[in-house]
Fold HIRAN domain protein.
Amino acid sequence: MHEIDKPNDHGLMHLIHNKNLTVPLPFEREIFLFDTYIAGTSHIEGIEELYEYLKVGHPLKFYREPDNPYDAQAIMIKNADGVKLGYIPKADNIIFSRLMDAGKLLFGKISSKSMNGNWVKIKIDIFLKD
């Protein structure tokens, strides 16, 4: 095999694909889609202690759970540190789950938070990265 035909295992693309890095696209933008709240926070152990660390504007990661026994369109929400906070409400998730299943990158940002007794209410904005 000639040198020109050999794959380059040390180039930029290799680094990006194997180190979970992303390169911003030239015209990349965040498109606001919807505002809602995080469902299921009362089922998250230690959510009260986490409350003070949750700040307005903090990014949230979304993960599809097609095998969720309660909701086939379930979308789990985690903070930037990977801590599970809850889910997009079942009443709101059908379109977002279809977008994610089609390969679209959705994410959220905390828009407000409040503590009502032992219940932590976290409102979020949902965005599409395009």
Q: What stands out?
A: The radius of gyration is 18 Å. The chain has a mean pLDDT of 88. The domain at 29-129 is CATH 3.30.70.2330 (Alpha-Beta Plaits).
